[in-house]
Structures are given as C-alpha cells and as structure tokens.
Amino acid sequence: MHMMDWNTYRQQVTAGVGHFAKLSPDTIRGYGALSTAGQKTDQLDAKTRELIAVAVAITLRCDGCITVHTDAVRKLGATEAEIAEALGVAISVNAGAAVVYATRALDAYAASLEA
Fold first, then answer.
1. In angstroms, rounded to a whole number, what is the distance separating the alpha carbons of residues 68 and 6?
2. What is the per-residue pLDDT for 109?
3. What is the pLDDT along the chain (115 residues), one digit of tens a residue?
4. Are 39 and 29 in contact (CB under 8 A)?
5. In sequence order, what are the residues at sequence separation of 6 or more whose Cβ sits closer than 8 angstroms to the Cβ of residue 6?
6. For 33-80, what is the HEC assignment?
7. Which residues have a Cβ under 8 Å from the Cβ of 84 and sit 6 or more positions away?
8. Nearest-5° angle of CA 103, CA 104, CA 106?
9. By the 8 A CB rule, do 66 and 58 touch?
10. Pick from 61, 71, 48, 50: which is nearest to 91 by CA?
11. CB 47, CB 71: distance < 8 Å
C-alpha cells in the first residue's frame, strides 16, 4: 500500500493547473517559459533535469511537484537507486542549510545580548 494515490493526485494536479490556466493564461504561459528555458542550453539531459526537479521538489515539500517529476523521470528511464541518490543530495543540502541558519540564530542571540 502507498501513502497516497499518487497517480490520481497527479491527474488532479494536472486538472487543477488546467483550470487555473483558463483563469490566468498569462501566468501559466510564463510558468511554461520558465520550465522550458533551462532545456534550451542542452547542457544537461532530460533525465538529469528531472532528477534535479525531484530533489528540489522534496526540499520545497511540494507533493504536486513530487508526483509530476517522479513520473517524468521514471518515463525517462531513471532507476529507483538514481532517484534515491538525488534525494540523498537534497537531504544533505537541506541539512547543510540548517547548519548555516543555526549560525544565524546564534548570531541573533549574540546581538540580542548587546541590546
């Protein structure tokens, strides 16, 4: 059993974006332009771009992004191990960001002592 029905959810997200596109077509056109802009340089292959997208999706905690990009990267031939490696990178970057922001919290504490 899965945590949620990702296939149905992906269909719901797609339908929701389609509805939003009718209400705000320029917004969705702009999003589409952003989504395809990185592909034009052709420095990374599609599978690598989608692995990055899955990793970013978990850092943003975006279930819609997760379902869309994991489906896309699977269709591009990514293995579960490749996805796990990309997720591991995302996890380590998030941990690193927390360490950096911990230093900011300690700096704010030190500054409050001076007030």
1. 9
2. 96
3. 888 899 999 999 999 999 999 999 999 999 999 988 888 888 999 999 999 999 999 999 999 999 999 999 999 999 999 999 999 999 999 999 999 999 999 999 999 999 8
4. no
5. 66, 67, 70, 71
6. HHHHHHHHHCCCCHHHHHHHHHHHHHHHCCHHHHHHHHHHHHHCCCCH
7. none
8. 65
9. yes
10. 61
11. no
Token representation of residue 14: 């797609």
Category of 42 on φ-ψ map: left (φ > 0), alpha (ψ -120 to 50) or beta: left
* C-alpha to C-alpha distance for 34 and 30, rounded to whole angstroms: 6
pLDDT of residue 39: 84
- The per-residue pLDDT for 33 is 94
Would the pTM of this model clear 0.90, i.e. be above it? Answer: no
Which token pair is 94? 């998030």
What gap in Å lies between CA 47 and CA 87, rounded to an integer?
14
